[in-house]
Structures are given as structure tokens and as C-alpha cells.
Amino acid sequence: MTPAAPAARTVRTVLGDLDPADLGPTDSHDHLFIRSPLLPGEELDDPTAAAEVLHAFAEAGGRTLVQWTPYGMGRGAAHLAELSRATGVHLLAATGTHQAAHHVPHTTPYGTPYENLAARFVADLTTGLPGAPEGVRAGLIKIASDPGPSTAHARRVRAAAAEAHHATGAPIAVHLEAAGDPHEILDDLREHHGVPADRIVLGHLTRLTDPALHRGLAAEGVHLALDSPSRAGHPTDLQAFDVIADLVDAGHADRLLLGADTTTRTARRLGGPARLLTDLAPRLSRTFGPDLPHLLLTTNPATAFATAWRRP
Ligand SMILES: [Zn+2]
After folding, report:
1. How many A from CA of 142 to the centre of ligand 1?
2. Whole-angstrom Cα distance, residue 43 to residue 132?
3. What is the crossing angle of helices 152-168 and 117-126, to 10°?
């Protein structure tokens, strides 16, 4: 008896499921649309400005952008498919939930009890995003850690994200805080909730300045998103190259993803996603050779975001 062939792994974009080989150079963590009560006056909410960002990214050689904005933070669900069609850039949308403080009002996101969050995440991943044209689905689940020990909100969101992962196979992307403990999040997801390490992407590593911590996390088999080089002059921007270089030297290049993580109008003015390709990639290429930017921008995202999608 021949065993059934494993389901093909695809990347779920807003225009449908894509062969991972077609992903091309990818900004693995960014925002075309986002708003938070913590960032007044810095909202990214203009589809025309988003189109300009994508045109500039495409002109620099970019093919795919992964948006980590979850529900309730103005993720632009109504615009993503049209923007992808108009600019030729593949877009991934996120479901999930950020820290409670980012959501308006500061209560349960989605206006639903926590018990219903997993079902909401699954619906975003398999049926479609509320407010989007029919069939526009999320391709990842975004959650966040706290600046300190996990709050009840974060623990409940994590449980819902793990449940949605088990139902669909979707990868889970985690916004880390410098003052939090990434191992607490990782242990909870893996040991308590049974999420495989290779389905987890940890973001904001450049905020955490301990190289031993980075190496330890990479050795666990998770994907690490180095995601701040859009903020010219920001300390995390200056640290990004060194963090990447240390992890490459330690043999963890196959774990690394790059993202610009543009969360404000100020950051967008200073660069945005195109800078990954016009600034960071040439610097990496000069130091490590051209294979490294290809690995970090094209090969690794195809692995991190490709999923053998399950139907719940
Ligand atoms: Zn982000």
C-alpha cells in the first residue's frame, strides 16, 4: 500500500495559495496599514501611500511582503487584494491579536469572549477577513509577548493562536518585547501547546541585545525575524547588521528572516521596505557574498511561511 502523498505546502497570500518557489525576495515582517492608541498621529491608513511603498519595493526587486498587523489595528483588509493586484507584490495578511493596550477599546479584541478567539483566527485563515472582498484570507497568526511576565491576556491569546495553528497548520509570528523573556513564550507554545518550533517566527530580535540569547533561540529551531532596518538612525537599525553577522558566524543563517517593520509614518518617510533591498542586502552581500541575502530574503521565507494547510 502506498502512503498518501503529503499535502503540498503553499504560502497563503491575499490573492490565493502560492507555490513557495514563487515567493521571491520577501520582506518577512512589515505593515502597510496599522494604527494603535499608543502611536497617535502615526497611523498608516492610506491605500495610495501603501501603493507607493509597494511600487518602490517592487522596483528595488521585492516580490512579497508579509504584513503582521492583526485584527483591530486597522490592517486594511478592504485594500490588500487590490494593492497586490495593482503592484504585482504578493501580500500575506495576519490574523491574531496584539497586546491589550494596542487595541481600541482596551478590552477583548474582536468584541468576542476569549473562548471565541481561536474560531475567529481560524475563520480569518480559512474563510476570509471581515471587511475584505470574498476569499481574502490571512496567511499567518500574529501574537505578542509582554514587557515582563505574561499577562492573562497574552496567555489566552497564545492558547487561541496555538488552537488555530493546530486546526490549520498556520505559522505563528511573535512580537517580542526587550523586557520580556522569549524562552517563556517559546516554552509555552512548544511544551504547553505543542506548536512545533519550525512553525514559530520570533520578531524584534534586534531589540534584545544579548548574542547568546539569539544563538540559543536559533538553536531551538525557530525562525528569527531581524526586523527593524527601516528606521534609519534608530538604535535597532544600527544593531541589526551585527546581530545578523553574529548569527551567521554561529551557523544559524538558515533560521534568519529580514523585515523592515514599518510601524509609523516617520519610519515610512525614512525608508520603508525598499531599504531592505537597497541598503541592507548590499551590505550583507559585500561582507558574506551574494548567497546570504538570497538565503535570508528568498529561501528562508519560503520555508517559514509555507504551510501544509489543514481544513478544520
Ligand atoms: Zn511589526
Report:
1. 9
2. 20
3. 40
Residues with CB under 5 A from ligand 1 (ion): 68, 261
Interatomic CA distance for residues 73 and 27, integer angstroms: 20
Cis amide leading into 105 (omega within 30): yes
pLDDT digits (tens, 9 = 90+) for 138-151: 999 999 888 878 88
238-250 burial, b at 16+ Cβ within 10 Å, e below that, comes to ebbbebbbebbee
- DSSP, collapsed to helix, strand or coil, labels residue 173 as strand
Question: What Rg do the C-alpha atoms of the chain give, in angstroms?
Answer: 18
CA distance 23 to 70: 22
- In DSSP terms, which residues pair with 44 in a beta bridge? 34
Those residues of the chain that have pLDDT short of 50 are: 105-106
Residue with cell 477599546: 105
Q: 22 C-alpha to center of ligand 1: Å? A: 24
Residues found in the chain: 312
Q: What is the pLDDT of residues 222-268, one digit of tens each?
A: 999 988 765 555 666 667 888 899 999 999 999 999 999 998 888 88
